Amino acid sequence: MSYSDCLSDLLCGEDSSDIFSGESPECSSDLESHDFVEESSIAGFIEDERNFVPGYDYFSRFQSQSLDASAREQSVAWILKVQACYGFQPLTAYLSVNYLDRFLYSRRLPQTDGWPLQLLSVACLSLAAKMEEPLVPSLLDLQVEGAKYIFEPRTIRRMELLVLGVLDWRLRSITPFSFTGFFACKLDPAGAYTGFLISRATEIILSNIKEASFLEYRPSSIAAAAILCAANDIPNLSLVNPEHAESWCDGLSKDKIISCYRLMQDLVLDDSRRKSTKALLPRLRVTIRARMRSSGSDSSSSSSSSSYKKRKLNNCLWVDDDKGNSE
């Protein structure tokens, strides 16, 4: 059997002349089918996401104060600090909060704040890190960044088992990060700003995760709203109508996306104002100090000049008096 015969057998009946002709194969149908598969997968995520979030009445418990919103905010803030300390992925932080919220919806802690909530926070962060991070700190090393209580590893492991049982071992949650890449491509099909949109949307999602108000929205709505907010930073995309986001995939809710987008936009504006105020305060202090120094130097110079004038005047008067006396 010749080499060409062997090659033709290895090519599974395909014409070898087509393979080595140098012409690009037709792949548009493959790309279209890939897009269809991806969109159907995203639609499946939208359909299943309700199974990975707390119940619809979870936010109302914070409104009625049966759950402590400020205690939750402090726990989430601690999780974000540890995430930044160890350089964990954004998904790790989000999963930690997701586990915490799903647990609090299903089980009531002995008290709404204090050591039980911190123990839960440590356990949720540990589980999320084990899911997503290649290197996970020890349970003792994980309790950093102002942790008020230090728990023994065996205590945390027992809490981890309790969390796993309550969550029915469903740790691979659907999050806003499951949608951001797809939505960014829908908003920017050319791909010129896709990387920025995903990165900026990730920042927006994490910066707002402490707000209990976002518990009203599903991950897909949060992701769409974050991509729309990120688009506001790009002049070419800033005029995109939020109502069009519903067409990105089947199952999206236009009303929820718009409501979440408006809430997110307000918080992003408030955050930017706070940052600009913080950046402006040192300049104001320097300006005020400079003015105080200049005014102080002016007043001292004016007082010194006036005293000098008084001395000169007194001297003159004294001389005049002396002259008068001499006369």
UniProtKB/TrEMBL annotation:
Residues 77-165 form the Cyclin-like domain. The keyword NADP does not apply. InterPro entries: Cyclin (IPR039361), Cyclin-like_dom (IPR013763), Cyclin-like_sf (IPR036915), Cyclin_C-dom (IPR004367), Cyclin_N (IPR006671), Cyclins_cyclin-box (IPR048258). Residues 174-306 form the Cyclin C-terminal domain. Keywords: Cell cycle, Cell division, Cyclin. It comes from the Eukaryota. GO terms for biological process: cell division. It holds the Pfam family Cyclin_C. Interacts with the CDC2 protein kinase to form a serine/threonine kinase holoenzyme complex also known as maturation promoting factor (MPF). The cyclin subunit imparts substrate specificity to the complex. Belongs to the cyclin family. Cyclin D subfamily. This is B-like cyclin.
